Amino acid sequence: MVVLILKLFLRSAILDSQSACFKPPVSSEELEQFENDLVSDGSRKKWEWALKMYTDWAIHRNNLTRHFYSDPPILKELEDMTDSELDYNLSRFVSETRSAMARNFLAKH
Fold it and tell me: Is residue 8 domain-resident?
């Protein structure tokens, strides 16, 4: 009997100490809200702009390669690319993209 009471006491003590460190399980909606709150609105807008620029560039590049160049078209979405495909496509995106004033985005050193 004493062993059973001791086990119950220890289990209760462990659960109490853990409850101070851990929250109850969250729902999918709460998790999505938590992830959304991690990123500021300004950062989110910059990412949306960059992804739109990439998508527009990929469409433009695919049209050019289909008619004038021998480079392969970009057929996958960013999230579906392998690391080597990302390296290949993003390096071309950075070197082929210009600002609206036709200047390179990256400064020369």
Answer: no
